Amino acid sequence: MLAMLELYENKLSNNGILTWRDKNRREFAYSLVGTNSYMAPEIIKGEGYTKSCDWWSLGVILYECLYGFPPFVSKTKHATRIKILNWRQTLHFPTTPHVSKEAQDLIKMLICDHKDRLGSTSFCHLYSNPLHTISKQSNSEIYQYSSDAEEIKAHPWFRNIDWDSLHKQTPPFVPKIKDLTDTKYFEELSKDEVLQSAPGIGQYKIRDLLLRDKVYGEEVLQIREKLAFKGYTYRRKDIPIYNYIFISLNGESNF
């Protein structure tokens, strides 16, 4: 989580990584995306949201790291969303394990209304005017958010963290692996689980004849999983490509 905060700040401070060239574009997103347990209320409501929703998700991740489960977890997706929408009544802190008051305070400052959310100061003005644009940088048409991670990093719970040397420190847990393909820290998936149907749904419900094949079905599924995103690329249209690629005089690309 500390690395996430440091990486987020570095991205914001690095010229051009989080930039916009269309000064008239809306700074809100409206698509319903993400995992239910980590969604901010504004996403579920479809009100339009900014990157401040990421800090809500960070609060959920912090809660899960400390308590072992997400704060709004339920048996169904619908029940989870209802809990999130009513977070004032449903956000509780168990008595065990023991978690410091400062940690709980940080969580409460992240899992809260978007206008009060820690790290969201630079986004608050957007909610009053959805058409508002980011302040102009010099004479260019490039716009950039300020470093909102600083607010979170300044919280008392992080008082003993040396952010400047964090990337040089040895983490508390270092995986011992034989090589880059060693996956012993990942849960093994048994062969029976690969093509296992959902409860109450028989094998005949699988429409694809290849996947139903008892001999080759599993192999076909594995191949499809490996190639599912083969050749897939995505680049945001609103970020100038020259912020990522610099063309040298001899025509070569330097990253």
From TrEMBL:
<dbReference type="InterPro" id="IPR000719">
    <property type="entry name" value="Prot_kinase_dom"/>
</dbReference>
<dbReference type="InterPro" id="IPR000961">
    <property type="entry name" value="AGC-kinase_C"/>
</dbReference>
<keyword id="KW-0547">Nucleotide-binding</keyword>
<keyword id="KW-0808">Transferase</keyword>
<dbReference type="Pfam" id="PF00069">
    <property type="entry name" value="Pkinase"/>
</dbReference>
<comment type="similarity">
    <text>Belongs to the protein kinase superfamily. STE Ser/Thr protein kinase family. COT1 subfamily.</text>
</comment>
<keyword id="KW-0418">Kinase</keyword>
<feature type="domain" description="Protein kinase">
    <location>
        <begin position="1"/>
        <end position="158"/>
    </location>
</feature>
<dbReference type="InterPro" id="IPR050839">
    <property type="entry name" value="Rho-assoc_Ser/Thr_Kinase"/>
</dbReference>
<keyword id="KW-0597">Phosphoprotein</keyword>
<dbReference type="InterPro" id="IPR011009">
    <property type="entry name" value="Kinase-like_dom_sf"/>
</dbReference>
<dbReference type="GO" id="GO:0005524">
    <property type="term" value="F:ATP binding"/>
</dbReference>
<keyword id="KW-0067">ATP-binding</keyword>
<dbReference type="GO" id="GO:0004674">
    <property type="term" value="F:protein serine/threonine kinase activity"/>
</dbReference>
<keyword id="KW-0723">Serine/threonine-protein kinase</keyword>
<protein>
    <recommendedName>
        <fullName>non-specific serine/threonine protein kinase</fullName>
        <ecNumber>2.7.11.1</ecNumber>
    </recommendedName>
</protein>
<dbReference type="GO" id="GO:0007010">
    <property type="term" value="P:cytoskeleton organization"/>
</dbReference>
<feature type="domain" description="AGC-kinase C-terminal">
    <location>
        <begin position="159"/>
        <end position="244"/>
    </location>
</feature>
